[in-house]
Structures are given as C-alpha cells and as structure tokens.
Specification:
Layout lengths: L8 H4 L4 H9 L3 H23 L2 H17 L11 H35 L9 H19 L3 H11 L5 H8 L3 H19 L12
Helix pairs in contact: 2-3, 3-4, 3-5, 4-5, 6-9, 7-9, 8-9
Length: 205
Amino acid sequence: MHAVSGPRGEDRDILDDTGLVERVAKADPDALAVLYQRHGAACYQMAQRITANQALAEDAVQEAFTGFWRDPAAYAPGQGTVRGWLLGLVHHKAVDLVRRETAQQRRQNAHAAAQALDPPASTADPAVEAWAGIRAEKVRAALAQLPEPQRHALALAYFGGYTQREIAQLTGVPLGTVKTRIFAAMRRLQQQLAPVGSPEGEGSW
C-alpha cells in the first residue's frame, strides 16, 4: 500500500495521537513511526513484564503495531486514549504469545514423557545394565496394565513434570479425580513391583 501525500515529517511530530491515527488510516507510514516513537517503549516494557522474554516482548509489540497498520479503523476515539488502546493491544498480543509458547512447551514435555517410558540404553556396567533392563521391562509391563486414565495421569506427573493442578487443567478432569487416579496408579505399581529389588536384593521400586 502506498502512502498518500500529507503533512511533512516535522508537521507529524506536532500532531496529537488522534491526528496521527487519522494519518495512519490514510496509509501514512511516517505517522505510524511517530506513534511508535511516542509509545513503543511503554508498550515494550509492559510486554516484557508479561512475557519475561525479550524476543517474545519484541514480537508482541511488532505484531500489535503491524496489526494496527493493517486495520487502523480498529481504534475508535470512544475507546479511550491512543496510548491506552495500544497498550491494551500489546497486552493481548503478549498474552497470546505466552499461551502459544506454553502450549508448545507442554507438547515437548508430553513427548519427553513418552520417551521416558522407553529410555535409550545406557553405558553402565553390563551386569547393572542388564538388571536395569529387566527392571525397566517390569516397570513398563506394570504401567501397561494400568487403566489408561491412570497411566496417562501418572506419565504426566512423573515423566512430564506437571503438577496435579496442571494435569487437571490440561485434561479437563476435576482435580480430585486426578489425585485419585495418581494415587491409585502408584498403589498398584507398588504392589506389582514390590518383589523387584536391586541386584544386591536391597530395596524395592
């Protein structure tokens, strides 16, 4: 989109924010630049507080100002000051980015949980490694015998690193049900694996 003719650069600096928004609506990129000079730092500081991440904060500000450039009519004077509206827009973008990042991290944790159920071979002493293999096989067999809801909750808790409250939010299951499932799963595993000790016969799983 090409900018239309309008006030000189030095004249844009003296326009109030509403006047600059009107210039942005007429595809004047310099007016957007002036708005960024006035409010970009405050927007970034707020995004940084929300995301606690420099790159995400920068992305939030960039997405907000780019979105404003594409749809300047989204702002109406009745919505408050331009500064307040821009801060609200950046806040929304920052929260969205954090949610996206969290969802990605959860997927990675879930993948790690699945991998933990079948870990790669180690470089330990052959005798110890052989015993560990037998023990791991028994653990996997015991896990396989658990009801799927119990196995899923246990995997998320002990291999995925989620808290019980997070598991409830992730699966949409009441917190009390999550606690019951994990407790029941641990009790069944302890009963099935009690005979499985160390190579020296000490302790249990």
